[in-house]
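## retry 2 of 3
previous attempt timed out at serialization; input unchanged, resubmitting
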Amino acid sequence: MMSSTTAVTAAIDRVPVEICKGINGLEKVVLREARGSSAEVYLFGGHVTSWKNDHGEELLFISNKAIFKPPKPIRGGIPICFPQFSNHGSLEQHGFARNRFWSIDTNPPPFPTNSPTKTFVDLILKSTEEDMKIWPHSFEFRLRVTLGPSGDLMLTSRIRNNNTDGKPFTFTFAYHTYFSVSDISEVRVEGLETLDYLDNLQNKQRFTEQGDAITFESEVDKIYLSTPTKIAILDHEKKRTFVIRKDGLPDAVVWNPWDKKAKAMADFGDDEYKHMLCVEAAAVEKPITLKPGEEWRGRQELSAVPSSYCSGQLDPQRVLLGS
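## retry succeeded, writing output
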C-alpha cells in the first residue's frame, strides 16, 4: 500500500508545469516530462537555469558562484541576449532582457507547433518606461520554453515591433547557452569547419576556420558566420553529444573564458572553465530589422544523445546529417 507521502510525491511528479520559489525567493517555473527529464526557468531574465535528462544529470552549466540577486544576471544556463549581443552596440553588455523580470503569458497568440507536448511555459517581456530611456522602442518579446517527450529542450522567441511612431528597430540576439562538459580539453565541436568567423579576441577580425573540428586549449571567443542549422558538441569523456538545431539564427558564438578570464570574474569559479562551453545560436553579424507590426522568430532545440566514440560506433557526420 502506498503511503500518503509517497502518493503526494507521485502526484507532484506528474505535474508537467509547476510555479514555485527558487534561490533567494525568486519565482521559477519547473517543467517535468513523464520519463524523468526536467527544466527550470526563472522569471528573472526569462532564464533557463536547469535542464536534466531522465537520469537526473544536469546538462547545463551554472557557476557555483552565480549570483541570484537582481539586477545582476545569472551566470550560466541560457541567458537571453536582447536587444544587443555582447558590446555590438551602445547598450550594456548583452542588452537588458536577461536582467528584467518576465511575466507568465497565460493567453499567448496561436503558436504553430508540431509537438503534442503539454510541458511548456510561455513568458512575455514588454518594454517599460525605464527601458525606453535607453532603447526608445516599443517591443513585445514572447518566449516559449518546451520540454519534449524525449527530453529535448526547445526555446522559441517571437519579437514584435509595437512602435506607434512608424519607426523600425534593429537588434542583435543570442541564446547564450552554457553546456556542462566533463573536461573542455576532451571536447570537440562539429559543424563549423571551414567557416568564416569574427574573432572577438582580435578586434572582431574575420578569419576562416582551418581545423577539421574545433577543439580547445586556450581562451576562445568567436562568432561563426552563415552556420548550418545543426551543430554537435562531442564530449568524449561523458560519451555524450549535444545537438543544437536552430532556425532564424544564422550565427554561432563559441566561448570559453579559460583560466585568466575565469579568475577575473567574481561570479565564476577559478577552475570552472574546464567544465563548461558556450555554443550560442545567434544573429549578430547582420542585425535584424523589424518594421512596426512585424515579428521575428528565432528557435533553438537542444538534445543530448549518448555516444560511444571510443569504439568508433558513431560517425559524427551522421549526427549532423541525420535526423
